[in-house]
Amino acid sequence: MTGNQIIDKFNLYSDNSTELSASEELDLLNKVIQKIAMNRPWEALKTQASGTILNAGGVYYITLPADFAYLISNNASTDNSTGTENNASPTVIFVGSSYTPYQVVNFSDRRQYLNTIGYAYLDLANSRIVFAQDPSDDGTTYEFDYIKFPATIVATDTPVFPPARFHEMIAHAMAADEELIEKFPRANSYANDNLEKYDGYLSDMAYWNSMLLQN
Question: What is the pTM of this model?
Fold first, then answer.
């Protein structure tokens, strides 16, 4: 479904009880999409970053992608009998053509790994991933997986969440939005029904998402 089609459904489910402008409806649509996106690590939002490691005064780092939300596990095994060798979270930065894994540690733990090869940490305040030590012995390129924030859509775009049968969830969530209900009291009479339908769609999509994982 396109943004316009979802907005038409929203108006149907709210019985045209709002007086939002076209731009306000589109803002509400995007607000709901972002809310759904942050509900869990959806498979549709997983993506890969790669490039060249930068060096500024001896600090080796990666600039985060503009749509970066958070890092995800990328060094586990689909084979359940295989464990993590270093008993750490299987979230790494792969370095060089040999894809040498550099363990990502918590920002607050970074000093424990100072000048230690094989580690990196997320410096979110500066939109970068920093290596604890010069990684150039293993290479100058990187690769890692992350969850992205969905791009803002316009009326003719389609939301990033497939398949389309879940898109009606967005319309129901729009119609049950608290701010909308406060602004337009008539919408309150449909709120519980729309919220129930939204929750049902969300549960169905979460189950579908779980079946995409091979574990």
Answer: 0.90
